[in-house]
């Protein structure tokens, strides 16, 4: 996305939702806008219907755990097929109670993406038509992609750490 396209997208956001923008960045030349969570669905609808935006394709939606901040982010990546522009939107939720409205009324494809994010990160998407685990067993009591669990069993004695460059 070239600079002027990024500026146009920022302008589309600022014309109605400047007070919702927390941070704007362009890592790897990919426009990333961090927003307050309260109006995220309204903001995405604005980008969807805006005549110069037309961000009508949901590329992905996922969770990101920030244990040092005690927050979980939900990242929405949108694409405009008519202008070939992309934007990444992020909202940050408290780790103890990550709740955000569902995006399924705007993008039906958000259904399984939200279920996966719930399954692995524990994010509750209010209003979701069928929010239940999609890959893990239903009676699982943890959310395995949160960074609060060790990567491997520390009590194992059958492994040789020197084989992995560890002493």
Automatic annotation (TrEMBL):
Chief location of this protein within or outside the cell = membrane
Record flagged with keyword Nuclease:
no
| Domain NADH:ubiquinone oxidoreductase 30kDa subunit intervals | 34-154
GO cellular component assignments: plasma membrane
Write out the catalysed reaction. a quinone + NADH + 5 H(+)(in) = a quinol + NAD(+) + 4 H(+)(out)
Give membrane topology per the record: Peripheral membrane protein
| The entry's keywords | Cell membrane, Membrane, NAD, Oxidoreductase, Quinone, Translocase, Transport
- What does the function comment of this entry state? NDH-1 shuttles electrons from NADH, via FMN and iron-sulfur (Fe-S) centers, to quinones in the respiratory chain. The immediate electron acceptor for the enzyme in this species is believed to be a menaquinone. Couples the redox reaction to proton translocation (for every two electrons transferred, four hydrogen ions are translocated across the cytoplasmic membrane), and thus conserves the redox energy in a proton gradient.
- Report the PANTHER family cross-referenced here: NADH DEHYDROGENASE [UBIQUINONE] IRON-SULFUR PROTEIN 3, MITOCHONDRIAL, NADH DEHYDROGENASE UBIQUINONE IRON-SULFUR PROTEIN 3
Subunit organization: NDH-1 is composed of 14 different subunits. Subunits NuoB, C, D, E, F, and G constitute the peripheral sector of the complex.
Q: What is this protein called?
A: NADH-quinone oxidoreductase subunit C
């Amino acid at each position: 996305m070239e600079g002027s396209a990024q500026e146009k997208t920022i302008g589309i956001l600022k014309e109605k939702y400047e007070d919702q923008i927390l941070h704007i960045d362009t890592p790897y030349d990919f426009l990333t806008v961090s927003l307050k969570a309260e109006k995220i669905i309204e903001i995405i609808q604005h980008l969807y219907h805006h005549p110069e935006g037309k961000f009508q394709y949901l590329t992905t939606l996922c969770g990101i755990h920030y244990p040092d901040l005690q927050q979980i982010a939900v990242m929405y990546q949108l694409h405009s097929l008519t202008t070939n522009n992309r934007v990444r939107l992020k909202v940050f939720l408290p780790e103890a109670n990550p709740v955000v409205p569902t995006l399924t009324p705007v993008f039906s494809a958000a259904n399984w993406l939200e279920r996966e994010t719930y399954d692995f990160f524990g994010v509750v998407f209010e209003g979701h038509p069928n929010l239940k685990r999609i890959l893990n067993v239903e009676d699982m009591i943890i959310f395995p992609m949160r960074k609060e669990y060790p990567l491997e069993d520390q009590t194992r004695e059958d492994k040789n750490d020197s084989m992995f460059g560890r002493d």
